[in-house]
Amino acid sequence: DAGVTQSPTHLIKTRGQQVTLRCSPKSGHDTVSWYQQALGQGPQFIFQYYEEEERQRGNFPDRFSGHQFPNYSSELNVNALLLGDSALYLCASRDTGADYGYTFGSGTRLTVV
Amino acid sequence: DAKTTQPPSMDCAEGRAANLPCNHSTISGNEYVYWYRQIHSQGPQYIIHGLKNNETNEMASLIITEDRKSSTLILPHATLRDTAVYYCIVRALNAGGTSYGKLTFGQGTILTVHP
Asked: In sequence order, what are the beta bridge partners of B86?
């Protein structure tokens, strides 16, 4: 059973560009969350999607947006990239009706130059 | 969600028990204690969670004090592969007993297991 799959694994972008990161949740999971993890820091919550709607959002600017598709997969879009957006972006999924923790993917390493 | 406090780093000898403490003195009655770990270059991995009773699974044991203001994650026989950052997180479940919403990660404890 595949876990959470993220693509691409690594990405280099230029300041000012836009980027789209993709996430396929674990089979049976319907909720997807995105996190940003800067080097040496714990992951920071960006937002969460359930039933194709954004349900909760962390303290991130509107440059960060997302989408969830009917098959529960999700995209994270970041516009007008800044050097400070360089980080590991993690996707996590879970079954909303179940009592256990989130399953995380291995992340996408984004470098903005 | 309540704030947690963990030591920044700990060492443990291979084969010995690793006991990782966490303080959560402002925890509310409906908040659970969750533990995750993150091995280098991987995403966080769920370990265990509990409300007020001690819990055990195939990975670890969770001991929560009676006043629920602190807890300890126990890895009974640490191996080199247990070297990771361990995060203690407290969060509530919704009224239906299901869980959604953010996980608030702190700095965690860097556990280093030595041969």
From this structure: B37, B109
pLDDT less than 50: residues of chain A: none
Report CB contact under 8 Å: B102, A50: no
Q: Identify all chain A residues contacting B93, using CB atoms and an 8 Å cutoff.
A: 99
CA A52 to chain centre: 14
Residue whose token pair is 């080097």: A39
Q: Answer whether B56 touches A (CB < 8 Å).
A: no
CB contacts, 8 Å: A94 with chain B: 99-100
What whole-number distance in Å separates Cα of residue A107 and Cα of residue B105? 16
Name the CA dihedral angle for A62, A101, A89, B21, rounded to a multiple of 10 degrees.
110
As a whole number of angstroms, the distance between CA B104 and CA B112 comes to 23
Q: What is the pLDDT of residues B47-84, one digit of tens each?
A: 999 999 899 999 999 999 999 999 999 999 999 999 99
Using the predicted structure, report yes or no on whether residue B103 has a pLDDT greater than 70.
yes
